[in-house]
Design a protein that fits this description.
The protein is built from 3 helices and 16 strands. By secondary structure, it is mainly beta. A 5-stranded mixed β-sheet has the order 1-2-4-7-3. The protein has a 3-stranded antiparallel β-sheet with strand order 10-11-16, with no helix packed on it. Helix 1 packs across helix 2. The longest helix is centred in the middle third of the chain and has 11 residues. The chain is globular and about 65 Å long. It starts with 11 loop residues before the first strand and ends in a 5-residue tail after the last strand.
């Protein structure tokens, strides 16, 4: 096992990374089709085709998920994934046409690198070409390239975010795995000790300020509303209906 979402049979992951512009995209491919659900939260979510995942709708399986930087512009990467899958004859069959079902979500990273350079169809297609079912690159890569967190006091004191993945096996052969982009407002907290591991860097000295305590004191949010998002995919080899 790779301790990654690619431990789920049938899943591939590919990245496109632009370090100069501090942006990128990450595709999770499930070419054989996968039953999916969705939970969309936040004040300004950027998504595409997530309504298709409502269980009352007719589409039963998806063929990939796109996670991207570039804010709303980054949703264009999904077209590249659909083009890649269409070339392979993969999709929802309708009127003699295969329509690849690829929902996606984006993070806001336009103020980190270059706001004029965003991932698009070509970059989404390249991420598919880079996809494999092996080890998954993590950190400042793909959709996590421009991610930061701990932003209550603005970008200057924030901590670099990124992309991570992990998996766990239990009950014999059941595997649950996830891949997420951390572009959050808050802190990273050790669940066992409650210690803040990373977040808002102190203006003087080492360590981190406590986001919750600052908010209780009425500290003004400097990063701007709607600029924090955590997006990702949770997958399992257990049967879903």
């Amino acid at each position: 096992m790779y301790n990654a979402i690619t431990d789920i049979p049938g899943i591939k992951v590919g990245h496109y990374t632009d370090l100069k512009a501090a942006t990128g995209c990450t595709v999770v491919l499930c070419e054989e089709g996968a039953v999916a659900g969705v939970d969309v939260r936040g004040g300004a979510p950027g998504t595409r085709d997530t309504d298709l995942l409502n269980p009352i709708n007719v589409v039963e399986k998806i063929h990939g998920v796109m996670l991207s930087g570039g804010s709303a512009f980054g949703l264009n990467t999904i077209g590249g994934v659909q083009h890649y899958l269409e070339q392979k004859g993969i999709g929802y069959e309708m009127a003699g046409v295969s329509v690849p079902i690829v929902p996606g979500a984006v993070v806001f990273d336009l103020d980190i690198g270059s706001a004029k350079i965003r991932p698009g169809m070509d970059e989404g297609y390249q991420a598919c070409l880079n996809a494999s079912d092996g080890q998954v690159a993590q950190g400042c890569v793909g959709a996590g390239t421009g991610a930061i967190f701990g932003q209550l006091k603005g970008k200057r004191l924030a901590t670099k975010g990124g992309l991570g993945t992990a998996s766990v096996k239990f009950y014999g052969d059941v595997i649950v795995a996830a891949i997420f982009v951390l572009n959050a407002l808050g802190d990273i907290i050790d669940p066992d000790t409650g210690q803040i591991l990373a977040g808002i860097r102190k203006e003087e000295g080492a360590g981190f300020d406590n986001t919750i305590e600052l908010m209780k004191k009425g500290y003004t949010y400097l990063a701007g509303p709607g600029s924090n998002t955590v997006i990702g995919v949770v997958a399992t080899n257990a049967l879903l209906t």
